[in-house]
């Protein structure tokens, strides 16, 4: 992603549009149409993102996509709205919370398979602080952004937490060969 990093202006544009989408939806407004042609090519291009909302450093909502299926700018706006209104872990964001919410956008690379032969091999191949990780078990899928390494720096605990989030035994990654994908992000915040 380093050769394709967003400029400071592109990041500012995405954050501003995410903020407008967040505030509008929380106040009951529809998402306004964008003039995509007026935006830089990287924001018009297909991309995937996660939008994280926090209040005083505590998670308040986080929604995103792992595959690019729409223009990056639309992906960011859609996930800002979803993080506020559709994250099942939290009540919907109320208008009086808007001034306290801090927005973070994570632009993702496309996830790629991580080949490993055993649990110990998996632990050595993960790159804490760099890789976002996706675990797949049948129809179940779960991910942690690379930012989660700041809170869970130990690879084994990281995988345990991912399994727990998926709703399976925390040690499933040790007892069953799961499909593992990794990706990187370009993260920026207000």
Topology of this structure?
Elements: H1 8-26, H2 41-44, E1 46-55, E2 58-64, E3 70-71, H3 72-85, E4 101-108, E5 112-113, H4 119-125, E6 132-137, E7 140-144, H5 155-166, H6 172-175, E8 179-183, E9 185-189
Antiparallel strand pairs: 1-2, 1-3, 1-4, 4-9, 5-8, 6-7, 6-8
Helix pairs in contact: 1-3
State the main characteristics.
Dna Ligase, domain 1, 5-stranded antiparallel β-sheet, 2 domains, 190 residues, single chain, 32% helix, alpha+beta
Tell me what you see in this structure.
With about 190 residues, the protein is α+β, with helices and mostly antiparallel strands. It has 2 domains: about 1-110, Glycoprotein, Type 4 Pilin (2-Layer Sandwich), CATH 3.30.700; about 110-185, Dna Ligase, domain 1 (2-Layer Sandwich), CATH 3.30.1490. It has 6 helices and 9 strands; from the N terminus they run H-H-E-E-E-H-E-E-H-E-E-H-H-E-E. It has helices at about 10-25, 40-45, 70-85, 120-125, 155-165, 170-175, and strands at about 45-55, 60-65, 70, 100-110, 110-115, 130-135, 140-145, 180-185, 185-190. Strands 1, 2, 3, 4 and 9 form a 5-stranded antiparallel beta sheet that branches. The mean pLDDT is about 95.
Largest pleated sheet: 5 strands, antiparallel
Structural class: alpha+beta
Instruction: Determine Rg (CA atoms, Å).
Output: 17 Å
> End-to-end span in angstroms?
21 Å
Please tally the helical runs, counting DSSP H or I stretches of 4 or more residues.
6
- Mean pLDDT level: 95
CATH architecture assignment name of the largest domain? 2-Layer Sandwich
Query: So what's the oligomer here?
Result: single chain
């Amino acid at each position: 992603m380093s050769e394709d990093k967003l400029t400071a202006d592109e990041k500012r544009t995405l954050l501003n549009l995410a903020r407008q989408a967040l505030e509008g939806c929380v106040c009951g407004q529809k998402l306004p149409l964008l003039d995509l042609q007026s935006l830089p090519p990287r924001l018009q291009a297909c991309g995937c993102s996660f939008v994280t909302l926090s209040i005083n450093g505590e998670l308040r909502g986080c929604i995103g996509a792992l595959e690019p299926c729409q223009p990056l700018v639309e992906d960011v706006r859609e996930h800002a709205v979803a993080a506020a209104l559709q994250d099942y872990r939290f009540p919907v964001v109320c208008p009086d919370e808007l001034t306290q919410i801090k927005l973070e956008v994570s632009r993702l690379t496309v996830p790629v398979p991580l080949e490993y032969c055993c649990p110990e091999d998996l632990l050595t191949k993960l790159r804490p602080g760099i890789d976002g990780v996706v675990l797949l078990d049948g129809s179940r899928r779960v991910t942690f952004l690379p930012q989660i390494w700041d809170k869970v720096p130990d690879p084994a605990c990281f995988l345990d937490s991912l399994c727990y989030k998926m709703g399976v035994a925390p040690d499933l990654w040790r007892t069953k060969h799961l499909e593992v994908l990794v990706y990187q992000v370009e993260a920026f915040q207000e």
